[in-house]
Amino acid sequence: MPIRDKINNQLNIALKNKDKILISTLRLVLAAIKDKDIASRTVDKKEPVGEVELIRILRKMMKQRRESADLYQKAGRNELLKIEKQEIEIINSFLPKQLSHDETKKICEQTIKTLGASSIKDMGKIMGELKKKYSDGMDFSRVNIIVKDLLNQPHEVS
After folding, report:
1. When you count CB atoms within 10 A of the terminal residue's CB, does the N or C end of the chain come out lower?
2. Is the pTM above the cut of 0.70?
3. Do residues 118 and 110 lie in contact, with contact meaning Cβ atoms separated by under 8 Å?
4. Where are the alpha helices (DSSP H) in the chain?
5. CATH number for position 105
6. Range(s) of the domain holding residue 123
7. pLDDT along the chain (158 residues), means of 10
8. Domain of 71: which CATH number?
9. Is 110 helix (H, G, I), strand (E, B) or coil?
10. Residues 58, 29: contact at Cβ < 8 Å?
């Protein structure tokens, strides 16, 4: 089922159950999606944004919530921190499952080997290849760190 439909179905259920946090979070998500739909409309293109763009929107919203949660935690605002964490859980439930750290590292190692990459100069080529194949399954802020670490390790001559 497309993400947009899942969100709308979940909103209908939340409305019936009078789940205030879920309702407000899903309305925020749908508003962000609608904004992107409107912004991407042209004379020729009338259809809404696709799944890839929806995933980007959700990831951006997750990042915003994490940043807010960090600020609330540092400020000792536990009631607001709790709300942010609930919103993170809700938004995350609509995202594709992320690969684990070990799975991500293994894929990065394989990609580096396949491309014959040997230095930081190859970073763009590696990241481009990974984004092409694994755009919705990897956390690229984590991938960036892993690839840099792998490229900075001494290589064995075979």
Report:
1. C
2. no
3. no
4. 3-17, 20-39, 51-75, 78-92, 101-115, 123-134, 140-152
5. 1.10.10.410
6. 101-152
7. 92 95 95 91 80 88 93 95 95 86 89 87 89 80 87 62
8. 1.10.1510.10
9. helix
10. yes
